[in-house]
Amino acid sequence: MNKKLTSFIHDIIDKDLEEGKNGSKVHTRFPPEPNGYLHIGHAKSICLNFGIAKEYSGLCNLRFDDTNPSKEDVEYVDSIQEDVKWLGFSWEDRMFYASNYFDQLYEFAVQLIKAGKAYVDDLSAEEIREYRGTLTQPGKDSPYRNRSVGENLELFEQMKAGNFPDGSRVVRAKIDMSSPNINMRDPVLYRIQKTKHHRTGDKWSIYPMYDYAHPLSDAIEGITHSICTCEFEDHRPLYHWVVENVSAIAGLKSKPQQIEFARLNLSHTVMSKRKLRQLVEEGHVKGWDDPRMPTISGLRRRGYTPEAIRDFCERIGVAKAVSTVDIAMLEHCIREDLSSKAPRIMGVLRPVKVVIDNYPEGQVEWLEAEYHQENPELGGRKIPFSRVLYIEQDDFMEDPPKKFFRLAPGKEVRLKYAYIIKCEQVVKDEQTGEIVEIHCTYDPDTKSGTNNEVRKVKGTLHWVSVEHAIRAEVRLYDHLFTKANPEEERDTDFKQNLNPNSLEVLKNSFLEPSLADAKPGDKYQFQRQGYFSVDPDSKEDRKVFNRVVSLKDSWAK
Ligand code: ATP
Ligand code: MG
Ligand code: MG
Question: Are 109 and 85 in contact, with CB atoms under 8 Å apart?
Fold first, then answer.
């Protein structure tokens, strides 16, 4: 056993193993509905289900919960597999579809009808709702509740054959219309829906409901612990009713139990597939994998690593109480992961030109620079130094306040890996007044890494050589929503809280030439700026970088 975490779920499993339940095995599943891309909330469920299986030397299935054909698509099936793999988990040969069980589920429903535990109801959806009653009022029996088994079987057969219009009839479990739990008041098991399914095509005119298909898919696959989010707590008696009643008549591989945990909510974003789909379809973001999205594909494109996401899921842990995690904690996790892994390079995001008047024209020095001071394994490269450089606009002020230790008229700074320079003169555009060039002199006796580093100055700046730098587009991201909880006001559309400045594109950034070979997904620390990842939009001669996260950590531990 490879156990390390603790939670109330672990406690339940430990007890089950002790009592020998389900043959003392642990078999979990991750059951996404293929109706959208996975998000960071799903990552929590993936880490939990696959993680528990691993800790207990058990198994975890990937199962597509594809019982609602109108919203599902193979595009999502493919993206889900990619995301689970990328997160570092493997289902091996255990990938299933609920739709694989449609024949079996139908047969079980026939058996339930035969056993007097299900019936065909002709009430409309609205009437069913009315008859169902409320929390304070018991429900009423449907006038069709006591049909004979023969009539029920005949009608169910015809529903299957497509002889009735959509929504005209349903199959319901016969449980208890006065149950205090509304889910137990004869829940619907099958509905008529003549929609093409992305796997079974036109074969079916009826589709099973989640509350029926899910427990049975679990039991067919031999799942022992069916872990889901707390919205399903009230459905648990129904889950167990379905398993109990079907296993009493048909052979099922296991009697799984449902265990609920609190879903993950993250600040400054939304996490339901329906809302994320709206953002995509209405063009508020560029796609499901837009680096501002909380989707796994968005985070991957942004530059998040699987290690950081797994670490995040472990830190937030599992509990029953719903809470919202500050997005700063997710950012903290990627910062931690990249801080030791990412080579540290120099890139100037918003450039201004520096000319070193006393540096010989045409001369180039290739300066030695390690990629990471504390991680020598990353190696190093040479950086060209020449007479004309770029520095960051922010690193120069014509009229600086007292504690400004960067470059200013008459002031000195060190250029990282190179020399101390002094600002002698500023050249401005006559019309706009914009600074076009900063003229400096350098002190040849102050080269870094030599014993001539005697003179100390307070500021050290990053820079690139104009002649050698590569031009890049840099995309800076901010929170997708301005409010920590964009869904806070019930009667306002959550999209009103979208952050209009969530993306800033810099078209003219310049990077040291070692980045010429950077490939999509490669990650770097741009010194003094943050962590950046190469975007797949990059072309050979035009790299695009996403800022994963800035250097400053705002997460209060
Ligand atoms: P959404 O509301 O975003 O569409 P869902 O629950 O309908 O989510 P499913 O595809 O059914 O999406 O989810 C697959 C699994 O992931 C389920 O077991 C579900 O409980 C879990 N899950 C979904 N969202 C979260 C979340 N925010 N935190 C933890 N687990 C989640
Ligand atoms: Mg669901
Ligand atoms: Mg959903």
Answer: no
Atom of ligand 1 lying closest to residue 271 CA: 3
User: In what helix (H) or strand (E) does residue 250 lie, and over which residues does it extend?
Assistant: none
Residue 382 scores a pLDDT above 60:
yes
Catalytic (active-site) positions: 33, 263, 273
- Please give the Cα distance from 261 to 45 (Å, whole number): 9
The answer to whether residue 449 scores a pLDDT higher than 90 is no
Q: What is the distance in A from the centroid of ligand 3 to the CA of 181?
A: 22
Domain 8-261 sits in which CATH superfamily?
Answer: HUPs (3.40.50.620)
Q: What does the block give as tokens for 542?
A: 């035009």
The question of ipTM being above 0.90 is answered as yes
Is the CB of residue 45 below 6 angstroms from any atom belonging to ligand 1?
Answer: yes
> Per-residue pLDDT tens for 33-78?
999 999 999 999 999 999 999 999 999 999 999 999 988 899 999 9
Nearest CA to 352 among 306, 391, 403, 294? 391
* pLDDT above 70 coverage of the chain, percent: 99
Q: Which CATH superfamily is domain 347-462 in?
A: Ribosomal Protein L25; Chain P (2.40.240.10)
Of all protein residues, whose CA lies closest to atom 23 belonging to ligand 1?
Answer: 42
* Residue 453: per-residue pLDDT: 63
What is the domain partition of the chain in residue ranges? 8-261, 347-462
pLDDT at 435 over 90: yes
Query: 215 exposed, middle or buried (CB, 10 Å; 0-12, 13-18, 19+)?
Result: buried
Instruction: Answer whether 263 contacts ligand 1 (Cβ < 6 A).
Output: yes
**Does ligand 1 come within 6 angstroms of the Cβ of 35?**
no
Residues 412-427 have a mean pLDDT of 97
- Ligand 1: which of 42, 60, 217, 266 to mutate, most ligand atoms within 8 Å of CB? 42
The verdict on the CB of residue 34 being under 6 Å from ligand 1 is: no
| Cα–ligand 1 centroid distance for 264 (angstroms) | 9
DSSP collapsed to 3 states, 97-114: EHHHHHHHHHHHHHHHHH
pLDDT of amino acid 554: 76
Query: Which atom of ligand 1 lies at the shortest distance from residue 38's CA?
Result: 10
Find how far residue 425's CA is from the centre of its chain.
50
| pLDDT category of residue 3 using cuts at 50, 70 and 90 | low
Least confident of 16-30, 448-462, 539-553: 448-462
Q: Ligand 1 pocket check: which of 214, 218, 229, 288 to mutate, most ligand atoms within 8 Å of Cβ? A: 229
